Amino acid sequence: MSDLHLDYDYMEGASNDCGKPLCCRSDSGMATSDETRAGKWGNFKCDLNKPTFDTMLAYIKDTIKPDAVLWGGDSVPHNLDTLTLETYV
Questions:
Q1: How far apart are CA 67 and CA 83, in angstroms?
Q2: Where are the chain's structural domains?
Q3: Which end is more exposed in the chain, N or C (fewer Cβ atoms within 10 Å of the end residue's Cβ)?
Q4: What is the Cα–Cα distance from 75 to 47, expressed in whole angstroms?
Q5: pLDDT tens digits for the chain (89 residues)?
């Protein structure tokens, strides 16, 4: 697995078209239409949300039952305008 880009600030109902590097977050503003609304299970224009991530891991563990999992990294969300070293260390 790699490039998961888990976003702990993902917010259902937020806009996926906010004009920032990453939307669907608490600072993105609320969606004005169904087409721009961040859904419960995510949005293809945004980074991965925690419920989808947790469900994916449970499915892998309980259904696929791999002997090993390799995590390739690159999991930091794309909110480039607000990223700081202190946030992710």
A1: 35
A2: 1-89
A3: C
A4: 10
A5: 888 889 999 999 999 999 988 999 999 999 999 999 999 999 999 999 999 999 999 999 999 999 999 988 887 777 777 766 676 55
